[in-house]
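Priority: medium. Attachment 1 of 2:
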């Protein structure tokens, strides 16, 4: 791996390289995506069936687009029983963690009779997109669906592309069943996002769409935002490791490669104040890559978006990490908890040498759907809050309004909104 001295210039070069991976940088596909969305809005099921035939080489109709209970039962028979049990354990951990995020409505009363409060209600229907083929990840099904169910969403529908035989990945179906999905539709790509956003004869319109996908899915989610809510326009996976001289270079290298293998646009970065560690990690990366099954993808990822940055001090390293605001951040320092107190921006933080990133991907419980491309500066992991809405409650007595009406009328008049002022003044004529 390339080893670079950390300076403002090299840091900015890294940031610029990472931003090139953002879905917002692929405007050339927006026209195609908009045409697909327009077609689905106008022609509904007919457009869905046409795209599924063209893109997935699968003939569907209104009778076969919905996954049946029999198909779900068949999926269980195609999976190793131990793997099914592992998914159930993971689901229990994810559910337990997200139940702790639940909020309660509240009301406050004052002696003058005024009541102020916030009412929390779940969304009525959520849509989850799940990629198909080689990109089918049952873990993402659990991470998308369980927070919605914990939040109290009445109906969770899922869309995922079928194979040529009209079947859906069995791991996807079993994960969906364990997580509690209500309906599963065999449709993928931008056309699935359009169907969820606007509804068709077969697929109901949802209030929010979550889930990962390719560039067409990401751009479709971006295009329908406003008609529905979305989780984010996610970019490729990324990991940043903060490590000092005491870190184990084999662990660091292995953890960086765990993300580099996702795809050629994935990013793996080490920032350290030790040149000796940097060199050892580089050697371990080369050794591991030679024996890993996805080595071609790993090499392209590291060639384009892999860095080992050597800082003058750990404080400089932390400052750079905060600027990069990585999706996943591992802290492998002598006192990782102390280091963590200085970290402001990260999607998820993994502390210590036995908290490797895949722990968060699969099993620990916190959500693995995280902000990417520096958006950890202002976005959060997917959670229960993404599937609720808050309504403000205001109730004033005559006594309470009488105390404040002059101030309210003065504010409204100052803004030139005399009807606002009159709405209050008329009660005290």
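Attachment 2 of 2:
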């Amino acid at each position: 791996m390339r080893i670079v001295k950390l300076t403002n210039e090299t840091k900015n070069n890294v940031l610029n390289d990472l931003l090139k991976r953002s879905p917002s940088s692929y405007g050339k596909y927006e026209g195609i995506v908009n045409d697909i969305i327009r077609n689905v809005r106008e022609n509904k099921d007919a457009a869905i069936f046409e795209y599924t035939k063209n893109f997935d080489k699968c003939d569907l109709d209104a009778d076969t687009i919905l996954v049946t209970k029999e198909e779900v039962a068949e999926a269980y028979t195609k999976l190793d029983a131990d793997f099914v049990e592992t998914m159930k354990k993971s689901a229990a951990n994810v559910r337990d963690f997200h139940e702790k995020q639940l909020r309660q409505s509240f009301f406050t009363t004052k002696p003058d009779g005024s009541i102020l409060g916030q009412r929390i209600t779940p969304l009525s229907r959520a849509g989850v997109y799940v990629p198909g083929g080689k990109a089918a990840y049952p873990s993402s099904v659990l991470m998308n669906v369980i927070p919605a169910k914990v939040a109290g969403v009445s109906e969770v529908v899922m869309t995922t592309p079928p194979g040529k035989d009209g079947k859906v990945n069995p791991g996807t179906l079993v994960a969906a069943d364990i997580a509690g999905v209500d309906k599963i539709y065999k449709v993928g790509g931008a056309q699935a996002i359009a169907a969820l956003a606007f509804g068709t004869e077969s697929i109901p319109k949802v209030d929010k769409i979550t889930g990962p996908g390719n560039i067409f899915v990401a751009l479709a989610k971006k295009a329908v935002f406003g008609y529905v809510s979305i989780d984010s326009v996610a970019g490729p996976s990324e990991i940043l490791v903060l490590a000092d001289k005491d870190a184990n270079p084999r662990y660091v290298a292995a953890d960086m490669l765990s993300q580099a293998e996702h795809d050629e646009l994935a990013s793996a970065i080490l920032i350290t104040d030790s040149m000796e560690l940097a060199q050892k990690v580089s050697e371990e990366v080369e050794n591991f890559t030679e024996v890993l099954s996805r080595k071609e993808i790993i090499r392209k990822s590291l060639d384009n978006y892999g860095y080992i940055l050597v800082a003058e001090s750990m404080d400089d390293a932390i400052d750079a990490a905060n600027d990069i605001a990585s999706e996943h951040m591992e802290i492998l320092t002598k006192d990782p908890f102390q280091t963590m107190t200085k970290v402001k921006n990260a999607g998820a933080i993994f502390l210590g040498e036995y908290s490797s990133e895949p722990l968060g991907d699969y099993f620990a419980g916190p959500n693995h759907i995280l902000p990417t491309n520096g958006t950890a500066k202002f976005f959060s992991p997917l959670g229960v809050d993404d599937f609720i809405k808050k309504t403000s409650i205001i109730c004033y007595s005559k006594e309470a309004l009488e105390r404040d009406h002059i101030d309210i009328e003065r504010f409204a008049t100052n803004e030139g909104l005399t009807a606002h002022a009159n709405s209050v003044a008329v009660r005290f004529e």
